[in-house]
Design brief:
7-stranded antiparallel β-sheet, Pnp Oxidase, Chain A, 3-stranded antiparallel β-sheet, 215 residues, alpha+beta, binds flavin mononucleotide
């Protein structure tokens, strides 16, 4: 390894910090995070809807996504009980309604009505779809992994519903039409409107471009 100096930085050791400051640290540096707007149904039939930005693809075959609940909240309890849920993508036009569903409402109050969004039946799972959402993914619970204070929910995608208006003439999903929003630190969000393309290089192209690998 070369004898280079690290630029000035603050070193943060988790053992010296409380849960709250670690939460703010992680939320500010793991950005931008896409938002899974998760719909689930309680055993008494109440429809639940809540945003989760600890969200990503877990596997592509079988298609599996994950979201993480910090704590054992209504969403996790419902998913554990029913084994089913729906994840929606949040477009810019839905951001305020998504935010309304993050309020800590009593378990018997449906966030669909709080946010003024329309529940419609899913095809394969017992959880409602947000009619206004551009994308809805019906999921069957794969497993819940407990990690420290959190619950990572993995769901196998059993049906994708992608609004007709998102598809371009080459039958690809147009990111401009999807207009997804992402979560940054604190209450800051990002729109996905400043995009660029960057082709992935082959090793040979890197060498042709003058890169000299250390051996
Ligand atoms: C944009 C956004 C993203 C959020 N992401 C998460 C998350 O990843 N995990 C989490 O536990 N809570 C997250 N929250 C907070 C939950 O949405 C909130 O605690 C909600 O009340 C949980 O609902 P539930 O009790 O019905 O599960 C987020 C809130 C917002 C506004």
């Amino acid at each position: 390894m070369e004898d280079a100096e690290r630029p000035p930085s603050r070193t943060i050791l988790p053992a010296d910090h409380d849960t709250r400051s670690l939460y703010f640290l992680l939320n500010s540096i793991v950005v931008p995070r896409p938002i899974a707007w998760v719909s689930s149904r309680a055993q008494d039939g109440t429809q639940n809807l809540a945003p989760h930005s600890y969200f990503t693809v877990a596997a592509t075959d079988p298609p599996t996504i994950s979201f993480t609940s910090i704590g054992d909240k209504d969403t996790v309890r419902n998913v554990r009980d029913t084994g089913e849920f729906v994840v929606h993508v949040v477009g810019n036009d839905l951001v305020e309604r998504m935010n309304a569903t993050s309020a800590s409402a009593p378990a018997d109050v449906s966030e669909f009505s709080l946010a003024g969004v329309t529940p419609v039946d899913a095809d394969l799972v017992d959880a409602a779809i947000v009619a206004e959402a551009p994308v809805a993914i019906e999921c069957a619970l794969d497993r819940i992994v407990e990690v420290g204070n959190s619950f990572m929910v993995l769901g196998r995608c059993v049906a994708f519903h992608v609004a007709e208006r998102l598809w371009d003439e080459r039958d690809r999903i147009d990111p401009a039409r999807l207009d997804a929003v992402a979560r940054m630190g604190g209450s800051t969000y990002a729109r996905t409107r400043d995009r660029f393309d960057l082709a992935r290089p082959s090793y040979e192209e890197l060498l042709d471009g003058g890169v000299t690998p250390a051996v």
